[in-house]
Amino acid sequence: GEVCNMINKKYSEFLPSMQSAEELVAQVDGLSSNIDLLKAGIENEVQRDLNVAVAEFTELKQQLERDTLVLSILKKLQEFDTAIQEYSAALLEKKYVAAAQQLEKARSNLKTLESRKGFELKILKALGTELTVQTQNMLYHLGEEWQKLVVWKIPPSKESSSLESAMHSELHLHTVPSKEEEIAGPPVASVLQAFAVLGELQNKLKSFGQLLLKYILKPLISYPSLRPFTEEQADVFILCFKAEEPNLDHSSPMEVFDKIKLTLEVLHKYLLNVPLEQPAEHHEESRVTLAELLGDMIWEELSDCLIQNCLVNSIPTNSSKLEQYIEVIKSTEEFEKALKNMQFLKGDTTDLLKYARNVNSHFANKKCQDVIVAARNLMTSEIHNTVKITPDSCVNLPNLPDPGAGDHVKVQKTSKPLHNDTVNLENGTKLSQHMFSLPTCRISSSVEKLMELAYQTLLEATASTDQCCIQLFYSVRNIFQLFYDVVPTYHKENLQKLPQLAAIHHNNCMYIAHHLLTLGHQFRYRLTNILCDGAATFVDLVPGFRRLGMECFLAQMRVQKGEILERLSSARNFSNMDDEENYCAANKAIRQVLHQLKRLGKVWQDVLPVNVYCKAMGTLLNTALVEIIARIAALEDISAEDADRLYSLCRTMVEEGPQVFTPLPEEDKNKKYQEEVPVYVQKWMTFKELMIILQANLQEIVDQWADGKGPLAAEFSAAEVKSLIRALFQNTERRAAALAKIK
């Protein structure tokens, strides 16, 4: 009875299937006695009259079921109410775990009520709202407590990731238990356990973990000068930073591990060593420590940061230091063991340890990357800083590593050469190149350095483990492929505009091609054992480099030819030279061409190999002569004065043309090349013959022709000579006779 009165007092609305609250109260009052009567009734009636009984029995059974259900619902409502009351009382006394457990009890009662089909109580909605409000209220109180226990002192965000701001970040833990608390258990445990009961612990820890990474752990890894610093006062424990002068740009992994370990140890002692009862649905492992939960959340990010900012930098750059790397691997193992003892880590051999143990492969990757970066820097540096190379220039190399320096260095010192012409590698190596000697010329100093880098990397390869050796060999091939792709595009404009750079680039390509012929050969004993089919060669790259150098230089030659023809086009076709203005224009054009050639002769001097220089200058001078010859040969009328003036223009070319050949800086040595001009200028003799015609009388021309056997016939066709005679001489019988002899 009293149950109902209480319920009746508190709640105004029940079951849609009941007529009114009064009926309900009456029913519930009579409920217990009803049940007894029903039982007796069922027994008696059944005996008395079976036919009637079947119908009545069914009805009474349904009545009983309905009443039982109503009673159980009322009980649940009563339990919900009690739980909420007890929760409020516990919260007032700051008994957080008890309060949280009562809330969860109320929640499970409400779940049961909601699952009853056929009884959609309006009241359930109100109860749900009440529960939500109380849960939020509790979380708010817990949040307040947590903020008192764990206090972050962080500088304003604008300088978030600097060393400066790290120096000003502090974490204060008010979790140092005072004497009387030690018996009751520290408040931090009850706050965290209450969070766990309410299922909110993950979120709280997640944001704590993010702050921990951002303001404490990552700065410790990134800034070598930071040291963690701790102090314990009566009621608070403080974790902050001190800065020292760093001795290096990067701390060693050992130092970083120690700093992180120290930080996690104090956190473990003052905050994280709290065993928690997980909510019942996590059956597998109901007790976990806070450290374990936090470790799960931050380990991946922490270990990535340690790899990227600490282990990567510690990978050695030359094979001799690989031996010492054992220390790093050991300290990584110890670091992991310490973290496991504190329960931060569960599994074995994490990524961090795998990375450290895989040092050989990282060494090779880092080495290859350094090589490519160095190569790219050389390729994008200025072309015009040059060095002179001569046929006996060779690449200087450091001494080979000592074969006794560790088992993995297998330098084959005493291999017998296969051929007598083999270049032997001795210590203090100089590689002689007289087999294919290079002509004297200038190349970019960056290309010389690039070649040294290639040789050095191959030397390093011969002293490395097999895997590393293969990687290094291919990174040397990559250097050259990179050059082929990068240089022509990177320096494109200058190579087109500046004839000197085009010449240097041409030499650079020829120099590289020259070395590629023998490059694999010198290291073949070591490399061919590893690279299948004796693939340790660079010969396949040679034609490409020769082509690259040629194409660039030929493009420059086309530009120069274009300019020569452009200048000569202003010579008014060399016609009517008796007109002063025409003569001046022609004279100016010839002067400009000579000036252009002289300037080229200077910028290519001492740069191009002499034979290339002479061919190039010869080709360009020839271009000018061919154009002049064609123009004059096409004239229909040449007066005596025209002829004299044309002759003097041609004489300027013949006298000053050879002087543009100055392949060497020492004046006196250039004479020889100037005298050999006819060798390099294809139409030189033709031009000289044209000059003779301009000055000759008819008989002299016929003599020069000498029935098609004379010097004139060697340079001009009969038609051309006839055309010149018609232009130079009046139409007379003597001219007709002369023309008849030219055939």
UniProtKB/TrEMBL annotation:
Originating gene: Zw10
Keyword Protein transport: yes
Gene Ontology CC annotation, any one: nucleus
Span of domain Centromere/kinetochore protein zw10 N-terminal: 2-84
Taxonomic placement: Eukaryota, Metazoa, Chordata, Craniata, Vertebrata
Subunit note: Interacts with NBAS and KNTC1/ROD; the interactions are mutually exclusive and indicative for its association in two different vesicle tethering complexes. Component of the RZZ complex composed of KNTC1/ROD, ZW10 and ZWILCH. Component of the NRZ complex composed of NBAS, ZW10 and RINT1/TIP20L; NRZ associates with SNAREs STX18, USE1L, BNIP1/SEC20L and SEC22B (the assembly has been described as syntaxin 18 complex). Interacts directly with RINT1/TIP20L bound to BNIP1/SEC20L. Interacts with C19orf25 and ZWINT. Interacts with ZFYVE1.
Topology class, membrane: Peripheral membrane protein
Compartment annotation: Chromosome, Centromere, Kinetochore; Cytoplasm, Cytoskeleton, Spindle; Endoplasmic reticulum membrane
InterPro entries: Zw10/DSL1_C_sf (IPR046362), ZW10_C (IPR048343), ZW10_C_2 (IPR055148), Zw10_middle (IPR048344), Zw10_N (IPR009361)
Centromere/kinetochore protein zw10 middle domain span: 142-379
Pfam families on file: ZW10_C, ZW10_C2, Zw10_middle, Zw10_N
Name this polypeptide is given: Centromere/kinetochore protein zw10 homolog
All copies of domain Centromere/kinetochore protein zw10 C-terminal, residue ranges: 436-566
